[in-house]
Amino acid sequence: MKKITPLQSIRAYCKWCCNGQSHEVKLCPATKCPLHSRRLGKGGGRILKIIREKCLDWCGWYLLSPKTCTHDGIKEELCFLHPYRLGKRPKSQTTLSAKVLKQRIESGKRLQRLKAKKGGK
User: Fold this and answer.
1) In the chain, what are the domain boundaries?
2) Helices (H), 4-81
3) CA-to-CA distance for 38 and 107, rounded, in angstroms?
């Protein structure tokens, strides 16, 4: 699944909930759903908190925790809200350059040698 913004994920989830019908998303009668106010993919503010609230609602508030949620798949599809279920943006995956990676490996080896010297005395 490609990366999508929190608002796009709400829109996609609502569309999934309405069997893929965009028109049905506009007519959604589920006013108690935490996502209802953002279902059209517009708005700002507490979007991540709204997603967390929906995930807590889905998990039963106390039976499960969104943190331990393994519900990546809903009917063999990826849950659009899953990356944002904790109410935070997921950490971006950064790739290290070869030079930085080599420096970190060397630092680790030096640290191991120092520990070995201290342990040998």
Assistant:
1) 6-84
2) 6-17, 22-26, 47-59
3) 48
